[in-house]
Structures are given as C-alpha cells and as structure tokens.
Amino acid sequence: MKNRIFNFSTSMAALVLAAMFFTSCETDASEIAQLTEMKAVATTTEMATTSNYNADQVCACLTANYPTEALSAAEVDALIFMREEEKLAHDVYVGMNAKWGIRVFSNISNAEQRHMDAILCLINKYKLDDPIGDNGIGVFKNTDLQALYSKLMEKGSTSVKDALTVGATIEDLDISDLAYRLTTTDNADIKAVFNELTRASRNHMRAFYRNLKNQGVTYVPKNISLATFNEIISTSNERGGSICGICPNDCIGNGPGKGPGNCNGNGLGNGSGPGPGNGLGNGNCPNGNTGNGPGNGGGNGPNGPGNGGRR
Questions:
Q1: Distance of CA 303 to the CA centre of its chain
Q2: How far apart are CA 206 and CA 220, in angstroms?
Q3: Contact partners, residue 99, CB within 8 Å, separation at least 6
Q4: Helices (H) and strands (E) in the chain, counts
C-alpha cells in the first residue's frame, strides 16, 4: 500500500495547545470541598505550556510529510470510527465540566478537540465523508456511540467520583480501540496520528487515576489489561508532538555518547557522557520517525553514527 511520497516541507512549530478555561456551575454543598481539592490537584496532560497549535499547519504537515497511500476497508473504518470516538470523549468531558467545573475535564476536552481535528485532516486528505458533519454536542452517527454517550452522561452526572470514573473508562476504551485499529493499518500517516492519540490517552488515564486516587477510588480497567494499566499509571506523563516531526531537542539514536539532538534534517547530534552510549543524531521524524546523522560521543566516548529518532 506504499504508493507515492510527497516532498518534505519545512519544520513546523510545536503541535500541542493548552487552552485552559473553567465553566462555572452550581453544585451541592456537600461537593464544594471535593471540588476545591479536585481543582487544586487536576493537571493538564499534554504539554500545556505550548500555545502555538494550528490545525491548518497540522493538516498541511500530514499532507506534505507523509505518503498518500491506498486505503483498505479497515483503514477507512478506523478513521470514521475513531473520529466519532474522539468526539464521544470530547462531548462527555464538556458535559462533565459543565456539571462539576473540574479542571481536568476542561483541559482534556480541549485535547480531544485537537484529536478530532487531526483525524479530520486525514479524512479530508483521503476524501472521505466526515461522519460528524454539523452534528452538535451529544449527536452521533454511530448508534453504539450514541447509546454509550447517554449511558456515560447519566453515570457521570451522579457524583464527582462517578464523573472521574467515566473519564477513566473512556480513556480505557480509547487506548484499547486505538491499539486494535493500529493492527489493521499500515499507512504511515494514520499510524502516526493513532500513535499520538494513544500516547495522549495514556496521559489522560494518568490524570484521571490521580484524581480518583485522591478521592479514595480504585479504578479497575475494563478494556485494556491490568498489566497495561499498571504500566501506564506507574510511569510519568509522555511528551507529545510525534505526528509531524515536532520533536524539540528530543531525537535519540544508537551511536556513542548521550545528549539532546535537533530534529531538522541530517546533521550532528552532540553526545555528552563518558564511554560508548546512545549517540544522538538530527532526524526529521516523519517518514518512519527516523533520520540519519552522526552522534558525537562525549567524555571518553569516541565519535560514532547515530540514527536520530523519536524518544
């Protein structure tokens, strides 16, 4: 399915955006103390210090830096389904934020909108019909997702704990579905977007887990394995930006030395550290997320080749 490859365009600015906002709402008196604590502990989960997100640039990058390849029926289905599943997450979080006014829902609903935008880029690139169209909040073409939305909204409206459990449930489902869809596609652009969405969903799961833990709630995964869940919650948040080669000072390779490298084409990656180690090269991350460049070993490490790639 590997047909034609577009020329590489110039490097883009950072991919992610953290547009934070709060929605005021009425709550029962018994919830006030909980909500105060939740707003204090909730953290943004996707490189929230960056504010240069531009959907048009992301779409241009996906078109210019990745091949346009023939789509299988499974890949078409994956794009259509995941476009609406990301909308499900977005719409539920918007509703939970309106109900409870908790920062974690505000932050992550913004992230889900970016995910919807990224998949829409691919739908437009491959000239598919967008299943969302002009549908508003809570309206879905997929009947299963429509029913799930109603069920999750009902459950999440009963208490803060149930709302946070709904959030963890959505990310649990999202990680599982993305993992499955990745097994059914080999198009580079789809894999890049789905891998980025999976990374983000792991961060979202960490955020909901932390908030549930503060409420004394233990979440048990329903879709991913317990081993996968434990690995996610026991590790730190992951850095984003792998869709379009946005990898600021974060390319690594297999040569001697160790240190940060740039991601703007072939060149030198400066190693730091004694002896042979992991050499860093400058690599443009699209087209296999690798680039070729020598890595300079630091300390007692000799110079050697380093294939730059995403950390």
A1: 35
A2: 13
A3: 25, 156, 157, 163
A4: 9, 4
The greatest distance separating any two alpha carbons of the chain, rounded to the nearest whole angstrom, comes to 66
Q: Which residue has the tokens 């296999």?
A: 288
C-beta neighbour count of 228 within 10 angstroms: 17
Task: For residue range 44-103, list pLDDT tens digits in order.
Answer: 344 333 345 677 888 888 888 899 999 999 999 999 999 999 999 999 999 999 999 999
Distance of CA 161 to the CA centre of its chain: 24
- Domain borders along the chain are 35-44+55-233, 251-310
DSSP symbols for 196-232: HHHHHHHHHHHHHHHHHHHTT-----SSS-HHHHHHH
Torsion angle (degrees, nearest 10) of CA 83, 85, 90, 92: 150
What's the CA angle centered on 124, arms 121 and 129, to 5 degrees? 125
User: Around Cβ 59, how many Cβ atoms within 10 Å?
Assistant: 18
Cα separation, 288 vs 285, in Å, equals: 7
Is the whole-model pTM more than 0.90? no
In the numeric block, which tokens belong to residue 66? 């990745």
Average pLDDT over residues 3-12: 36
Q: What is the CATH number of domain 35-44+55-233?
A: 1.20.1260.10
* DSSP3 helix / strand / coil % (the chain, rounded to 5): 50, 10, 45
User: How big is the chain by its Cα radius of gyration, in Å?
Assistant: 21
- Packing angle, helices 73-100 and 103-125, rounded to 10: 160
